[in-house]
Amino acid sequence: MISPVPSIPRSAHRHRPEATPYVDLTRPEWSALREKTPLPLTAEEVEKLRGLGDVIDLDEVRDIYLPLSRLLNLYVGATDGLRGALNTFLGARGSQSGTPFVIGVAGSVAVGKSTVARLLQALLSRWPEHPRVELVTTDGFLLPTRELEQRGLMSRKGFPESYDRRALTRFVADIKAGKAEVTAPVYSHLIYDIVPDQKLVVRRPDILIVEGLNVLQPALPGKDGRTRVGLADYFDFSVYVDARTEDIERWYLSRFRKLRDTAFQNPSSYFRKYTQVSEEEALDYARTTWRTINKPNLVENVAPTRGRATLVLRKGPDHKVQRLSLRKL
Length: 329
Known about the structure:
By secondary structure, the chain is α/β, with parallel strands linked by helices. The chain is 37% helix and 17% strand. The chain contains nine helices and nine strands. The longest helix is centred in the first third of the chain and has 33 residues, at 58-90. Its main location: cytoplasm.
């Protein structure tokens, strides 16, 4: 006689761990994973790399970014191993040489993603296996101001439609394909526009880091309804820098104040006009910009891509990473 299957108490269902594609780690758990990876940066170098208003110090580099550089080094090595296996399978018909390992870094305005990208570039270039690490921001692929004005998109600057997404995807695709030399436009935060007749040249890096608001956006369907290849499809690893919206807003306003006292003072600065009014008037502009542009873009476009990242860095109110979520394989 077959014994009946015992029923599972309803309370047991309530306590069952929720299925998730990520491994969640606390800061101490993550920090322990760096093992004996040496710290190759000095306090002075970290000071130069961090963005205005960011508080990254040597402890943050040691606890968060050293383990990440070790993980990425392992990923690069594993990718090389897979390439070798593929070459063995293809034989003489399709043997391929190494192509750049591409990393995407995404997150809101003022969350600190640019500092993360610069730190990763500095740390990864110290590993002997991949000394050539290039960093490209998607700002260079924003449509020129004149074109944004013609299309009525100046108030949507930073939204996906304000970029030349086809040119950006083609740029990364060409690098991933192993082209000897690929160029990108250059953006100036001083003039708030693309710099005419200036190009960034990338020549076969070991690793390419692509940093920007919308780098994890899925591809839009073509006019024929077919799915296209998107920028994120070329990434071997991706990082999303996360924080509470209210904390990001506070950081944004704090950064604006500091920029008003520094970069905005430059006579060539697009934002110099905000140094000619009272601080409160200038901050009213910053609050309006956050409320009407940056926050809607974060909520509608940037934050929904968080679940596409390989690794999510979750910052606390003090700008320090508190928890991390690493996608399972």
